[in-house]
Design brief:
42% helix; seven-stranded mixed β-sheet; binds pyridoxal-5'-phosphate; globular; 16% strand; alpha/beta; Aspartate Aminotransferase, domain 1
């Protein structure tokens, strides 16, 4: 396999990858030594000086987070907010839309579970209605249906999950962005699973918001996330429902002035060592090259699917014309526990997705559980072949 990535160096930077076959970057990936080092040095200073006194010593590095994150998404530092996870970022963004009773929001069948729960909850409070566009038999979004529903319902917001958690398909967010621009609809993309495994260019997607997490394919620390906010959204005065003194200045007794940048979507208190850890993780990913990561991961996934296809019992549940670095499968004859035991014994890290994690998708596929493998660029082809061998030894013919 030909890769532009120096896998030996990447593995040397990633102590966790030698302990096991780690195939769970869609869950919570392995941090590099560099990420942990910057966090440790911050915390050590904080231990001596106290929280508030430490910040000025690292101000330059803290500001660099906005530079690295904006380079990652092809935008400006003023359009980036640090958040505590993807759901936090997404919720703050959605809460900024001035919903009125009777409004519609348009979404897909594959939006992330927590986004669905959030919409159902908001629906109860604000009285808007949720409509879903159809999925084609290929697994792709039915763009004709999407546009028809845009015209029929005139939704105030369109939401799409770029790469759904329990199937590796990549949704055509650029095409949707084009339609949202055409019909002047607020547009949010949940890029939690795509950021860090492929190049994301918000100027091409033309979204108003894009939310992401730190700990998955970006390989940052837990408890970190980020939000892109477009100039259009900032200029329109969109602000999170629960805004604080980081996002706004209290300028008269009865008013406040929101910050001009996306920091409007942040809260005052934050874990600064986490910001530095995320910043370093982003810097590292950009230095490797998102196109290189995508190309290598695609090869790993192709090999993994070929391996899984040699086991008669396994039903790969992937679909979609474009797929990312998530491979899911189920079995109609073996139990989940049988698979878990085999993988655990072999020291392979993976995730399990249950029906209620992706209710609409897994109901359609009539699947109670999927095992999810999510290879990343620190994995080797040898590891993938080993996974195939282990499963074949147990169940192959
Ligand atoms: C597509 C997608 N969106 C959002 C989330 C939530 O991310 P977080 O746990 O960082 O809030 C996940 C987590 O698995 C996800 O897969």
């Amino acid at each position: 396999m030909h890769s532009l990535i120096d896998i030996t160096k990447v593995r040397a930077d990633t102590p966790g990858c030698t302990q096991k076959i780690f195939l769970n970057s869609a869950g919570s990936s392995l941090m590099t030594k560099g990420v942990v080092n910057v966090m440790q040095s911050y915390l050590e200073k904080e231990m001596i000086l106290g929280g508030y006194q430490t910040v000025p010593f690292f101000q330059h590095e803290i500001d660099a987070f906005y530079l690295h994150a904006s380079a990652l998404l092809h935008t400006s530092p003023a359009n980036i907010a640090f958040n505590f996870n993807a759901t936090d970022a997404y919720a703050k963004a959605v809460s900024s839309i001035p919903f009125r009773s009777g409004d519609f929001i348009l979404t897909t069948e594959d939006d992330y579970v927590s986004n669905y729960i959030l919409f159902i909850s908001l629906q109860k409070r604000f009285g808007f209605q949720m409509v879903r566009c159809n999925t084609l038999p290929s697994g792709d979004i039915d763009m004709f249906d999407l546009e028809t529903k845009m015209l029929k319902y005139r939704p105030v917001l369109v939401s799409v999950t770029h790469i759904p958690s329990n199937s590796g398909k990549i949704q055509d967010v650029e095409q949707i962005g084009h339609l949202c621009e055409k019909y002047d609809i607020w547009y949010i993309v949940d890029a939690c699973q795509s950021v860090g495994q492929m190049d994301i260019d918000v100027t091409k997607i033309k979204c108003d918001f894009l939310s992401a997490t730190g700990r998955k394919f970006l390989r940052g620390p837990r408890g970190t996330g980020l939000l892109y906010v477009s100039d259009k959204a900032l200029e329109a005065g969109l602000e999170p429902l629960l805004i604080d003194m980081r996002g706004a200045t209290w300028d008269t007794e009865n008013s406040y002035k929101p910050s001009g940048s996306a920091t409007r979507f942040e809260l005052w208190e934050a874990n600064y060592s986490n910001i530095l850890g995320l910043s370093e993780a982003i810097r590292y990913a950009v230095s490797i090259g998102l196109e290189n990561i995508r190309a290598y991961n695609l090869e790993l996934c192709q090999l993994l699917k070929e391996q899984l296809q040699t086991i008669p019992d396994i039903r790969i549940t992937e679909e979609g014309s474009q797929t990312g670095s998530i491979v899911t499968f189920t079995s109609d004859t073996k139990t989940l526990d049988e698979y878990k035991n085999t993988l655990d014994m072999a020291n392979i890290s993976y995730s399990v997705g249950y029906r209620h994690f992706a209710l609409i998708d897994l109901n359609k596929k009539n699947v109670d559980w999927v095992i999810r493998f999510s290879p990343h660029y620190f994995n080797t082809t040898d590891e993938i072949l080993q996974v195939g061998e282990i499963l074949r030894k147990k169940w192959g013919q």
